[in-house]
Structures
1.
Amino acid sequence: MSNSIRRIGKIGVAGSGAMGRGIAESCLRAGASVLLQDTSAAALRAARKQIERSLQHSVDKGIVEAKNIEAWLSQLEVSEDVAAFMSCDLVIEAVPEIPDLKLEVLKRIEKNVRDVTIIATNTSSIPVTKLSSSLMDPSRFLGLHFFNPVPRMNLAEVIPTVLTDSTVTAAVEYFVREQLEKTPLTVADRPGFAVNALLIPYLLSAARMLDLSYASADDIDNAMKLGCGHPMGPLELSDFIGLDVVAAVAGSIYAETKDHACIVPNNLRRLVEAGQTGRKSGQGFFKYADNVPTTSGPQST
Ligand SMILES: NC(=O)c1ccc[n+]([C@@H]2O[C@H](COP(=O)([O-])OP(=O)(O)OC[C@H]3O[C@@H](n4cnc5c(N)ncnc54)[C@H](O)[C@@H]3O)[C@@H](O)[C@H]2O)c1
């Protein structure tokens, strides 16, 4: 496949969860058209509502004009049908971090797009090269890893494999820099890419310290907020990312590296097993009411 650098007009996003809807919103704000696809109609309804709320919030804060919202929302289509991707220039997969599911979804996406469509995965940690094995044409495929919440986070990792056509990498770097106005960080397909290779051992260390009763959850978080100027402590950040996501990413990095720093501590694993996956479930290391941490305490489950 060959792609000269050109503006991407329509973006497809598979999966309308925390990341998919954030990616969709960022693309809308950049003036692009978006087709947001999910197998769950309820998830699509929730995603549209959340995008509307987030855009309205920007109007209320005086960051954007109200007339923009109508124009942006008119560019948003939602569908449960993967065949709707046929009109897209770029399709970004953002379904749960389950290798077999991603392989299956990517295969289905490729069957439903044009030859020139670029396909990307938002995986946090699954080797992009491994995912490319599901495609007939891996030269059109790469990792494009956004951060949560996407509209506010200005970095996107671009992860080409050895099979990715260099023009595809250039087109995606251009899309991130010139259209989304975010910073593209092109990084090799190594365990955890750049950000998670640094972040995950740090988050797991905080959970391990809590498990070993170094200090309370509040105090561990305050150590990094007050002592190092971090806007969020590691336990609150883990809850924000989703403890299931943190555990899945750690598992993928560990599978490749056998680095003990990526072994999931018992307390975190138990919370995930109990469905207490953090902010999205209302309970993780902290309890949440109206999306604000309310109470805390060691969770040596
Ligand atoms: N949460 C984060 O902070 C974060 C950050 C960066 C990257 N990621 C990565 O982004 C991806 C998505 O994470 P998330 O947090 O948005 O997950 P999520 O669980 O919030 O959303 C996943 C969505 O995918 C949908 N889905 C499931 N199967 C599908 C299918 N076959 N076709 C279409 N849609 C399907 C679900 O209905 C759900 O709406 C994962 O790979 C994750 O590792 C997450």
2.
Amino acid sequence: MRVPFYDIKAQYDELAPELDAAVHEILSSGGYIMGPNHKAFEEEMAELHEVKHAIAVNSGTDALRIMMDAAGIGPGDEVITTAFTFVASTETIVQTGAMPVFVDIDPVTFNIDPSLIEAAITPKTKAIMPIHLFGQLADVDRVGEIGRKHNLIVLEDAAQAVGSKHNGKPAGNFGLAASLSFYVTKNLGAAGDGGMILTNDDLVAEKCRSIRVHGMGRERYYYDYLGYTSRLDEIQAAVLRIKLTKLVAWNTRRAELAQIYLEALESADVVLPMTSPGNTNTWHQFSVRCTRRDGLQAHLKEKGVDSMIYYPVPLHYHEPYRRFGKGEGSLPESERAALQILNLPMHQHLSEDQVRHVSECVKEFCAPVRA
Ligand SMILES: Cc1ncc(COP(=O)(O)O)c(C=O)c1O
């Protein structure tokens, strides 16, 4: 049985008539930028995430950068974050002129280990950026407490946590602002790139809205801030609005499939993902840990099962970011996770048979050793 890692086309097939009609309508209308879909999408996302403001931009990476500019992060500042993640958070911290300070992850959740944050605080620390990896929120209670105690800004990288919650509260409510990504493979994926900033702060929202269009203020061709071109175009907004109507159902389906994996793999010699108490996991990824990871991946490939390694090399090992880290051995859990993690196929269009088949293939290679 062939099991692809993603099936983006299945999303199109499920919604084809609506998607085709919406794209056609926009093309024939001639209104391609900042139109009614853009506005409605922002309102719908603000409502879903229970925040005052949602500002749609061109990508999750732009959302990070604009959010940090609006929060006043810049040269001389330090931002505490993690290295076991996608590059965009650290990349954009460096682009602002600030310095990323890496702390290690909690090996169970892959998210920032809050017990290590205080030791990394210096007089230059301006912000903490937890990254909600794989669909569940970092320990936002403890990160928030530390932020308040030390007067630090908290900025959430929620690219992988659209709709994820802690104690019933969605991502976007645990700091000054949060960034989302609508990259094609995300739980809510555009037909291209897209991103969003969520915030309850009026001034941050006003700045983000301005920075995404060159720093223009209320009056055209008058500039208040240094900005970028980062609008979400009308076609992407329309596609996202249509997919948004399915998001809750799709995330629920992911949770059902994750449960099948968890039960089927209970006896396998792999470490299974755990959801922290109070968290609603949207299962952006289903990640297992295995000490023979590369062998397991090769075995799955032979059986027609795709898998991915998110992330094979922590950021402090990469050339542009080495100078911000403390070298090999400085982030032992991040380094170990990079060697052991394997992401199994996880999306709402997988069949239960496919999930059971993947689990059987994993168990063939990772059977528990009996005495
Ligand atoms: C954790 C994380 N942050 C940021 C991003 C950047 O988002 P985008 O690809 O939309 O720029 C991603 C996307 O891949 C991500 O996974």
